Structures are given as C-alpha cells and as structure tokens.
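User: Here's a chain of 463 residues. Predict its fold as tokens.
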Amino acid sequence: MVGTTEPLHRSLCSNGSLYNCNVLEEKLDELRCLVGKTDGDPLRIVSVGAGAWGSVFAALLQDTYGQFREKVQIRIWRRPGKAVDRATAENLFEVINSREDVLRRLIRRCAYLKYVEARLGDRTLLADEILKDGFCLNMIDTPLCPLKVVTNLQEAVWDADIVVNGLPSTETREVFEEIRNYWKERITVPIIISLSKGIEAALHPVPHIVTPTQMINRATGVPIENILYLGGPNIASEIYNKEYANARICGAEKWRKPLAKFLRQPHFIVWDNSDLVTHEVMGGLKNVYAIGAGMVAALTNESATSKSVYFAHCTSEMIFITHLLAEEPEKLAGPLLADTYVTLLKGRNAWYGQMLAKGELSRDMGDSITGKGMIQGVSAVGAFYELLSQSSLSVLHPHGSKPVAPVELCPLLNTLYKILITREKSTQAILQALRDETLNDPRDRIEIAQSHAFYRPSLLGKP
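Assistant: Prediction complete.
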C-alpha cells in the first residue's frame, strides 16, 4: 500500500504468509518475555561450534526468525584460520554452479569471484569465510542461508541469552571452561542447549558416565536446570532440506516446554522430555554400534542378511546396556531404535566404519575427518568399554552363574574396542564375532536383562 509504514517482515514472510509471520513473531515474543527481554534489546542466540548439526541448527533459526531483526540476533562461532583444501574448493565451486539460487545470491553479494579464484588455485578459502556465505565445511553439498559468523569466542558468548553447544563431546569441556572466564561478571544466567552426542567414562569415586551437559554444568557453574539436550533421529542436511523429522528437547520443565514450542516447525516436530541424561547417553550409545554396522555393510557387499544379523545383535546389546542405565528402559526403546536406525542408514559413524573396512581410511588418520568432522563413536567405544569392564558392576553370567563384568556379555562392543582403540584386530573381526558359533541368541541377552535386577543408578551419577 502506498505510504504504508508497516515493517517489511509483517508484509512478507519467507513463505509469503502474513498469518505464519504473526505466529512466528508471537512464539518469539513469548520466549523473549520468559527470558526477560525488553523492547530494543534483542534475544541473543549463538551456536558454539560449526559442525554439520550446529550449522544447520543456526541456519534453521536464521531462516525462521532472522526476519525479526529488532527482536532476535542469531550468530555462530567457529575457530578462525582453518584453510579449505584445493579438492574441497573445487567441489564447492561445482555445488555453487549447480544451484542457480546459490549462484545468484553470491553474485548479488559480490562473493562469487573468490570461489572462482579458489577453484583455479589462486586463493585459499577459510572455513569461517565460507560459512558466512552458508557453506559448512563438513557439509559442502548442502548450502545453507548466509550466517553471521564470529571467530572471537568472548565476543560471541559474553552477552548471549541462549548458547547452543554444537561442539563434539571431546571439545565441550575445554571450550566451556574458557567461556566460564567470560561469564564471571554476568548477572543473568544463560540457557544452554547441547546438541552433542558423546560421553566420557569416570571411574572415581565410583564408575559413572559424564555427558556433555554435565561437562558444561561443571565447567561454567550454570545450573543444570538451565542446560538442555536436543537430540533425535535426524540427519542434519535432510532437516535443512525440510525432510520431515522429529526430535526431543530434554531438561527442566521451565525451559524445555517453551523451547520445544519455539523450535517446532511444520517439518521439524520437537517434543519435550524430563529425562535429560539418559537420552543424552543413548545418543552416544548408538554411535558405537553404527561404526560396526558400516564395517559389516562394506565387508559383505551390503548383504541385507548380514546387516540384519548385526542389527539383531547390536540392538540386543544396547537393550542390555539400557537396563544397566535406566530404571524404566522400555521408555527408551522407541527413541533409541529410531536414532540407531537413521544413523545406520546415513550417519557419519556408519560411513566411517565403511571407509575403514574398504581401506579408504586408516585408523592412524584419527577420528576427526576432513569433510565429516569428529567421529564421536570412536571415543564412545572407549568410554563404554572402560565403564562396563569394571568389576564393581559385575553381573551373573547366564551360563556358569559366575560374576562377570557387563562388557563380557557384549561381544560386539568388545570387538569394536579391539578394532578401534587397542587396534589389535582388523575390521574383519566384526564378522568373525557375528559368526562365532558360541555366540548366544540375541534374545537370550534381552531375557537376561529383563529378568535380572541390573539397574545401576550410580552409572548416571544417581544415588
């Protein structure tokens, strides 16, 4: 309308719907009110870590709420200076030219020439530089929206209202210990949403699991009531491409319910749950067995029968382990199996297992892989093995009635430890474990777990 002073975001939303714009703004206003924001003071959200899931999470928020610039500020932090290698630059150039919308966007932003120069070898791109244009180094084939990138950690987090932990579990403690130094004079307590799937084993004073949310709590002093975990059966690139997905945000009721509402989108349904640590541990457990699934797939030329045999045994081990960790493990069966299923189909841990078995990757290359990021299942194998091998957690062996460490009833976990951690066996050992004539029926392991009082609350730090 001629002469209108109505803000642009009220006139046009990303999907062209004024109604949806109003709904989004109402959700944003509700969260701003809960956080205690006043007019003129934007809600500050920062994603710490720019792996695939952390980058997609920030991009989803930017796509959804970035239009309300006066009310919300969305940024992402990553370390500066990481160079993009020549092969990745060439691949990136091909991706750009295959997508007319991306190509036009870069030309309009006067950002296309640097990708041409990098393709020719005349320039070295940096990971933080391309992230500003919407390219995550671990997910080059899926262009995201442009992002506000910050490379100074203090600048990124010192006044953030919501911090999203997109770091691998192996880096979480170190980075949040640094963040603590920038929060010493804070008056308000931030909200932290952790996306990290991984665990550490601690053996003293009693064997127990340490999760990323616990690491954050101990590193920063932020109350556990303000720290949540978001996870679910999803693949980052597919979520950004609006494939239907769901997730759970777990933690204290004060924040999980409003955050579930704030994050929920038509293609990304977010439920809420109070069981923070158990869901977090399950997110790490499925990565362990995903690596083995990739090995089996590669070694058997994608044999559906062999993969199903592996699936039967790995799920029985996971069920056995959940009975040690959870008082009501049946409540975890659906989320755990769903997350395991999608990870076996397309996750980076299964891919890593395949590449090892094919000889295209070496264990000497470590667990941080160019173009994929951190393979968190490797450290999780070590953590679960170390924890479940403690004699103080012994259970009765079904044949012989003698006490054994729980890991002795998990032959696949045992084998993966010897392949990935001690490296005393080759990837072929995973098939040998499956073909062992003394291997029990997977059902036997499930029956043992269901018929014995295995629950060890101390494993999750409970009295």
